[in-house]
Amino acid sequence: MSKSISGFSKLSKSKKVDWIVDSYFSNKEDAKNIIKQYWNTNDKLQQLHDEFIENTITNYYLPLGVAPNFLINGTLYTIPMAIEESSVVAAASKAAKFWLNRGGFKTEVISTIKVGQVHFMYQGNFESLNAFFNLVKPQLIDATDYITKNMVKRGGGIIDIQLIDKTEAISGYYQLHATFETMDAMGANFINSCLEQFAQTFKIQAQQFDGFTAAEKNIDIIMSILSNYVPECLVKAEVSCKVEELNAHSDILPEEFAAKFIQAVKIAEIEPYRAVTHNKGIMNGIDAVVLATGNDFRAVEAGVHAYASRKGHYTSLTHATVENGIFKFWIEIPLALGTVGGLTGLHPLVKLSLELLKKPSAKTLMSIVAVAGLAQNFAALNSLTTTGIQQGHMKMHLMNILNQFNANAEEKATLATHFKTNPVTHSAVVEALHKLRVNN
Ligand code: MEV
């Protein structure tokens, strides 16, 4: 039976490993070896990773791949992607190459506004609260000067604060709804620090406001936190070409391909079961770049899916049309990203990824990430509406199956050739490997 422990965080890393191994594993030697196998021999680098979080026992590797040939607004990029799913980088690269010869991707950053809220309870007259808010608003902003000084120098800061009445939903519930421009920073710490200062000033000043009754002076702050829903931090990415240029398949005419492709997008627009999978494929591309560049993929996921539901039902993030013989395919998504602060200056692979992307501004990174999502969706729909997804997917998965059975280099080479012309299924690979071993 596993045991509880107190003071675990204060143990040394080795002691933590010992406790884990003793408490949970039957083959203790094996478990310890696996954990230690992933320790970096460069002590300084290992310490950096140890200190990212609490209770680090080892490192968890994901492959960092690259997808070259992305032409975005006339500039060529090789995009770094951190992901475990075998076909994602291959699919991105294929889509990039396809659009490279058809004008590439065009993007537009529509807006870059971020949001934070102070949630509070007030039992009293709304007119008095509104009068107090209008009086105190400049003070709320002034009191954050020590936080906003540098951001203002860089062109950002607090955009506005509004008082929002939410009493119809919850009795006595109001918000200070604040908007921010955080330039090249994702801005979570900046926003949260400003919000906590707003809350403090708001509460203290309320106690001194003559327009309140004694009971009204007691504003109850519930919490102060940024919102990961950022519908006004929006980017659009697009590809387009003449329908006749959709000619990469020998067995389907371009017009027919365009029609099927558009139908597939329309299905995702109206059918939530399909939309979730359609958008999951988009997030394959988005998360991989978000992760490689040290950004918060959980924040991006939450915000993107909320955006996909903004009209009251969950729908596709991408859209496609054919008008006057021109095929157009685009994505519009909210992305709160940073290229300074957070992990960006700390994690060596994040620094490398950002340098590979030519040290982009946050706006440029928004464009690149949106393009990665659009490309991924193009690749998925391209396969789904023609050959089916499994052909490419299983080809990429072949190595995983071979590794599962400890295939050696020679076996891998032989079977990679064999499966170039034969359909890959789990059982076919197992059978072919077995035959090869019996015959040798
Ligand atoms: C698999 O990770 C992603 C797909 O299911 C996306 C899609 O169906 O559009 C292939």
Task: Based on the model shown, name its key terms.
single chain; 440 residues; alpha+beta; 3-hydroxy-3-methylglutaryl-coenzyme A Reductase, Chain A, domain 2; Alpha-Beta Plaits; 4 domains; four-stranded antiparallel beta sheet; 10 strands; 19% strand; globular; binds (R)-mevalonate
Explain how this protein is built.
With 440 residues, this protein is an alpha+beta fold. The protein folds into four domains: 8-50, no CATH class; 64-108 and 248-387, Alpha-Beta Complex (3-hydroxy-3-methylglutaryl-coenzyme A Reductase, Chain A, domain 2), CATH 3.90.770; 114-227, Alpha-Beta Plaits (2-Layer Sandwich); 393-439. Helix content is 48%, strand content 19%. It has helices at 13-24, 28-37, 43-50, 88-100, 126-142, 145-153, 188-207, 254-270, 272-292, 297-308, 348-356, 362-384, 390-404, 409-418, 426-439; strands at 64-72, 75-82, 106-112, 114-121, 157-165, 173-181, 220-227, 233-242, 318-323, 326-334. The chain has a four-stranded antiparallel sheet with strand order 3-8-10-9. A four-stranded antiparallel sheet has the order 5-6-4-7. Strands 1-2 form a two-stranded antiparallel sheet. Helix 1 runs antiparallel to helix 2 (28-37), helix 9 packs across helix 12 and helix 13 (390-404) crosses helix 15. The longest helix is centred in the last third of the chain and has 23 residues, at 362-384. The model has no long low-confidence stretch (mean pLDDT 96).
Number of domains: 4
- Return the average pLDDT rounded to an integer: 96
Distance between the termini: 47 Å
What count of helical segments does DSSP give?
A: 15
Strand order of the largest sheet: 3-8-10-9
What's the CATH first level of the largest domain?
Alpha Beta
- Spell out the CATH superfamily of the largest domain: 3-hydroxy-3-methylglutaryl-coenzyme A Reductase, Chain A, domain 2
Residue runs with pLDDT of under 50 for 5 or more positions: none
Overall shape: it is globular
Structural class: alpha+beta
Helix percentage: 40-55%
Strand content: 15-25%
Tell how many strands the DSSP assignment holds.
10
User: Major beta sheet, specifics?
Assistant: 4 strands, antiparallel
CATH topology-level fold name of the largest domain: 3-hydroxy-3-methylglutaryl-coenzyme A Reductase, Chain A, domain 2
CATH architecture of the largest domain: Alpha-Beta Complex
Give the quaternary arrangement of the chains: single chain
